[in-house]
Amino acid sequence: MKTYLTTSTAAILALSVALPANAEISERTIRIANGVAEDHPVGDGVAAMTECINEATDNAWTINAFWSSALGDDLQSAQSLRSGTLEMVVSSTSPLVAIEPALGVFDLPFLISDEAEADALLDGEFGQFMADMMPEHNLVNLAYWENGFRNLSNSLRPVASLEDFTGMRVRVMQNNIFLDTFQTLGTNATPMAFGEVFTALETGAIDAQENPYVTIDTSRFYEVQDFVSNTRHAYTPFMVLFSKPIFDRYSEQEQQILSDCAIVGRDVQREASRSLSDQSLQRIIDAGLEVNDISEDAMAEIRDAVAGVYDRNADSIGADVVERVMTELAAIRGQ
Are 152 and 273 in contact (CB under 8 A)? Predict the structure, then answer.
């Protein structure tokens, strides 16, 4: 994990130089909640962010990270932020739809094509537009980190065409857009808490699940699955959220440190995420799973099949939000 920290050194030095000599920095303790384990790429981001904060505050702040939902799941932690009883959480956007439905835009199938496109969208005007919605929920979004592209694993057959989805019992997140997407593809989509997935796969209660390669690897799903198909059907970002009631008590200089250091952590975390994704894919292959890509023609048919998911969920997300993201993606793609 620590191998990625050197990339943040220049940014840390730049930040410390940029701060005024009379910066109003108090002694503070910040608790960071996470739903992932410390060896996840989020750990790299937190470590880089912590190093940056230590440098910028001359070690006046104490950063305590809590892993694997030790302080509650993502939604519970976000609610603690809103009430001012917790400082920070790194959360996937999907559970936060319960707080801000517009975040469901990131769950739309095949919205984002690749990592460069994701970075441009999230770090650009649309990302700021979404972040600007958070203060009304007593949240401050400091930066977007990466959960990654989701892929399908199963115990039945390689998925190489639209027909291959038919009848497959697929665990999906407890999220209406994912449920709609996989029902539309012809599967028997089953909402299920993540902690139940391994046992359900092992006992045959379900045939399949979908997650980034890192999760498939670290959750050892390769022990109870035979096939992985490179569907890349959704890209999920993490949000680095801070409690607005607590944030508002910080000085402007302290607020700037949080924002700048979250971005330092972002760059390190994304680099780690993409490197580890490649390593996880290789471990999945080494474990004996058959991994397949999907042809462009077949992928076009799959994308066409789920196009209606956009219209059916536009009202819950906000038609203006869907229109705005599509307009910005078109500009990013030079269309």
Answer: no
- The beta-strand segments (E) located in 78-121 are 88-92
Query: Which of the residue ranges 78-82, 134-138, 216-220 would you say has the lowest mean pLDDT?
Result: 216-220
**For residue 124, how far is the Cα from the chain centroid?**
17
Please report the DSSP string for 113-171 in residue order: -SHHHHHHHHTSHHHHHHHTTGGGGTEEEEEEEEEEEEEEEESS----SGGGGTT-EEE
Q: What is the dihedral of CA 254, 257, 259, 260, to 10 degrees?
A: 160
CA distance 173 to 198: 14
User: Whole-model pTM?
Assistant: 0.89
The alpha carbon of 245 is separated from its chain's Cα centroid by a whole number of angstroms, namely 24
Scanning 58-154, the segments in alpha helix (DSSP H) are 74-83, 115-122, 125-131
User: Which residues share a beta bridge with 172?
Assistant: 191
Under DSSP, is residue 248 helix (H, G, I), strand (E, B) or coil? coil
Report d(CA 145, CA 261) in Å as an integer.
Answer: 12
Class of domain 151-234+289-332 as given by CATH: alpha beta
Where do the domains of the chain lie? 2-104+111-147+237-279, 151-234+289-332
In a 10 Å sphere around its CB, with 0-12 CB exposed, 13-18 middle and 19+ buried, how is residue 76 labelled? middle
Mean pLDDT of the chain: 93
Which one-letter amino acid corresponds to residue 219? Answer: S
| Residue 54 CB contacts under 8 Å (≥ 6 apart), including other chains | 61, 63
Q: How far is CA 107 from the centre of its chain?
A: 10
- Per the CATH hierarchy, to which homologous superfamily does domain 2-104+111-147+237-279 belong? Bacterial extracellular solute-binding protein, family 7 (3.40.190.170)
pLDDT at res. 18: 47
pLDDT tens track for 186-204 = 999 999 888 889 999 999 9
Most confident of the following: 9-18, 103-112, 172-181, 214-223: 103-112
In the beta sheet, which residues pair with residue 229?
152, 292
Q: How many CB atoms lie within 10 A of CB 114?
A: 10
pLDDT at 24 over 50: yes
**Residues forming a β-bridge with 202:** none
